[in-house]
Amino acid sequence: MAFNRSLPAETLARIEAVIAAELPGSDARLRFSVEFVLARILSMASFEMEGYVAWVSRQILPTTCDDDVVHIHGEFWGIERRAAAIASGPVTFTGVNGAVVPAGTILRRADGLEYTLNADVTISAGTGAGSVTASNAGTASNAVATTVLSLTVPVPGIQANITVATGGITGGVDIETIASWRARIIERVQNPPHGGNEDDYKTWAKEVPGVTRVWVHPKQMGIGTVLLHFVMDNKPDTIIPSGGEVTTVRNYVLRADKAPVTPDIYVEAPVPVAVDFTIKIQPNTLEVQAAITEELKDFFQRESEPGGALMHSRIMEAISVAADEYNHELVSPDSTVIRTFGQLSVLGDITFEDMD
Question: What is the pTM of this model?
Answer without folding.
Answer: 0.67
